[in-house]
Amino acid sequence: MNRVITRLPESITELCLVRLGIQVMSFSAWLFARRLRSAIAGDAGRAIAEGTGLLNSESYAIAINHFGVLQYWRSFDDLEAWARRPPHADWWRNAVERMRLKRDIGIYHETFLVRAADIESISMNCRPAGLETFGLLGEPVGPMTTSRGRLGRSKA
After folding, report:
1. Domains in the chain: boundaries
2. Are the CB atoms for 104 and 29 separated by under 8 Å?
3. pTM of the model as a whole
4. What is the widest separation between alpha-carbon atoms in the chain?
5. What angle do CA 132, 135, 140 make, to 5 degrees?
6. What are phi and psi of 49, to 5 degrees?
7. Gap between the Cα atoms of 93 and 91, Å rounded
């Protein structure tokens, strides 16, 4: 079994995670949301390539009418700078306008700021995902085989 642990690069002391969810209430909204999801994926790829601070972006699906994206940002400042310029600002305005006029789509946005010391990661027999796509890889030995050990929390 292939087991890999991952930690953040030393240069990142706080990771900014963003979860953007899209819920649709009609077929035409579903088509709009699929185009929106594609635009987000394309923009994320360009943002990573341009070194804007986006480290990884992964799509997820909860149901056929509920899906979204989880993004890992180097900092909140990097996220905020990217969000205020095109193309993000353009598709965000389009989505908000659709919600206002047709009320057949819903969007939620969650931002988490997590100190590097409070993040741990292990994967077993997986293709690289999440932290493993940009973090520092290691082997889980000794205390690093448990979440408690990877977080540096000794049992009281």
Report:
1. 1-151
2. yes
3. 0.89
4. 57
5. 65
6. -65, -35
7. 5
Of the candidates 19, 84, 3, the residue with the CA atom closest to the CA atom of residue 47? 84
| CB contact set of 95 (below 8 Å; sequence gap of 6+) | 36, 105, 107
The pLDDT tens digits for 82-141 are 988 888 778 888 899 999 999 999 999 999 999 998 999 999 999 999 999 999 999 998
Tell which CATH classification among 3.30.70.260, 3.30.70.100, 3.40.720.10, 3.80.30.20 matches the domain 1-151: 3.30.70.100
Q: Which of 93, 39, 30 has its CA nearest to residue 67?
A: 30
Calpha distance 116→23 (Å, rounded): 31
User: Quick one: tokens of 97?
Assistant: 């306008």
Structure tokens at 27: 């077929």
- Rounded distance between C-alpha atoms, residue 48 and residue 78, angstroms: 12
pLDDT tens digits for 64-94?
Answer: 999 999 999 999 999 999 988 888 778 888 8
Between CA 51 and CA 53 the distance in angstroms is: 5
Q: Which residue bears the tokens 């969650």? A: 110
Are the CB atoms for 33 and 24 separated by under 8 Å?
yes
